Amino acid sequence: MIAMKNVHKTFALRDGEFTALGDVSLDIAENEFVTVVGPSGCGKSTLLNILAGLETPTDGQALVNGRPITGPGPDRGVIFQQFALFPWLTVRKNVEFGLRTAGMPRKRRQARAQEAIDLVGLTRFADALPKTLSGGMKQRCAIARAYAVDPEILLMDEPFGALDALTRVRMQEQLLDTWSRERRTVLFITHDVDEAVFLANRVVVMAAGPGRIVESVEIDLPHPRTEEVRLSPEFAALRNRVWTAVYHQE
Amino acid sequence: MSVVEAVPARAGAGASRPSPRRRTRRGLLPALNVVSALAGIALWWWASRGSATVPAPAEVLTRAGELIADGTLGDDVLASLRRVVLGFGLGCLLAVPVGFLMGWYPVARGLIEPWVQFFRTIPPLALIPLAIVLMGIGETPKTFVIFLAAFLVCVVSTFQGVVGVDRTLINAARVLGAGDLTIFLRVVVPASSPFILVGMRVGLGSSWATLVAAELIAAQEGLGYRMQSAQLYYDLPTIFVGLITIGVLGLLMDRALLLVERRLTAWQERRA
């Protein structure tokens, strides 16, 4: 479904250049939930931006369903850490944004937006402006906006990074719940090892200088991932393994 | 005084009500405004008593009545407003697209910015002699300098607004399938509207200032002209009527634009 082959990405700086990604290869299968974890500066956001079509690789190939990525597309939904809601639009209008650009007729657009809003539990706040929402609600609105276009792939860039710990755990559970029902392919970026292990089928660990993949850990924990799973010794073992890979890099 | 004393009583009234401190402040500010205005007028009246030149408030009020009755004040206000509305309207109308061009296309910025920055350093009034020579003594030179005053302020703030649009919002629109035109109309325009409106408010202020000065130099009617001719006859009450009218009209126009601004940018997260 997603294939990155020997992707390099360098940015031109005032003096010389900065290698964000040096030779990254990654395959993600359909319906897989992959989390990418690594220290800041390891190029994990660059990797996501390339897949989103917001950046182009300097060298190598990035493919979706066998076709090279030339720009953003409706097959890939993106959720940003900073929510990126349009503050002048209500929740409903935010969710309808992508449907409007796709030229969906009004009736269908409204119905589809309502479904997405209901799915993330914002029914009561559909006509509220973003400034009146809490952080968790803002991010749920952003998720609804991405779901509404019905993308096959969800690219999530530290989506829960700005939320408090409790909201964060709730959002993780909700995300897994929707994922197990809808089975989209997900690439989820985080710097939180617990989050990475809890959500994923596979955790990809990256290192900085230059950005590269150092380890890939299969997570064979059972679904649904309940609190019991989170507290199990199997979870702890996997978390320790990922932790070591992230924080004891050469 | 009584407002302040009432605070403890209100605080006990119920937790669901808005904070009493806040409500007190809300009522207190306009009250202070009125007190301050009345004190100012009293001070003026007191100063006029001991002076042979400064007219008393009552005298100015009488003159205002006369000027309104014979239609002079109405005609002057209309003449002045016509100039400012036309010049300011044209200035904003041009400033918004030019500001967008500068913010969106680096080439346009490189070509236009030196001129904007250069003319910004020249007070529009300094251009009046040139404008009169080139455009005659009719309405055109006056409208032109007002236009320029409004344009220069508004173009800079529009440009700043466009440059400052959050990159993440543009990316969010792009991944939702928006093309350049959609991004421009549905993201850049609304996101920079607070800047444009602030630019318009400041631009209106500087248009109004320029207008009155332009009329002092060359006009056959208008508030500035009226004061200028009153000066020749040592007619202080008329000068006072002119000044107060200019102040009140400027204030009213600013409030009107502020109201529009509040309505159009209510989505913004404000601190107060």
Commentary on this structure:
The complex is a heterodimer of chains A (250) and B (272). Chain A has 250 residues and is an alpha/beta fold. Chain A has helices spanning 44-52, 91-101, 106-119, 135-148, 165-182, 193-199, 227-230, 233-247; strands spanning 2-12, 17-28, 33-37, 59-64, 67-68, 76-79, 153-157, 185-190, 202-207, 212-218. In chain A, the strands form 2 sheets. Chain A has a 6-stranded mixed β-sheet, with helices on both faces. In chain A, strands 2-1-4-5 form a 4-stranded antiparallel β-sheet, covered by helices on one side. In chain A, a hairpin with a 2-residue loop joins strand 4 (59-64) and strand 5. The radius of gyration of chain A is 18 Å and the shape is globular. The two termini of chain A are 32 Å apart. Chain B is mainly alpha-helical. In chain B, helix 5 runs antiparallel to helix 6, helix 5 packs antiparallel against helix 10 (180-217) and helix 9 (167-175) packs antiparallel against helix 10 (180-217). Classes of the chains: A alpha/beta (250), B mainly alpha (272). At the A-B interface, strand 6 and helix 2 of A face helix 9 and helix 10 of B.
Spell out the key features of this protein:
heterodimer, A: 250 residues, alpha/beta, Rossmann fold, 2 domains, four-stranded antiparallel sheet, 10 strands, B: 272 residues, mainly alpha, MetI-like fold, 81% helix
CATH topology grouping of the largest domain in chain A? Rossmann fold
How many domains of chain A? 2
Given the C-alpha coordinates, what overall shape of chain B results? globular
The secondary structure category of chain B is: mainly alpha
Q: What is the residue-averaged pLDDT of chain A?
A: 91
Q: Given this structure, which CATH class of the largest domain in chain A is correct? A: Alpha Beta
Question: How is the biggest beta sheet of chain B arranged?
Answer: none
Q: State mean pLDDT of chain B (0 to 100 scale).
A: 85
What's the number of structural domains of chain B? 1
Give helix % range of chain B. over 70%
Give the termini distance of chain A in whole angstroms.
32 Å
Find the count of extended strands of chain B (DSSP E, 2+ residues): 0
Assembly level: heterodimer
Shape type of chain A: globular
Low-confidence stretches of chain B: 1-17
Share of β-strand residues of chain A: 25-35%
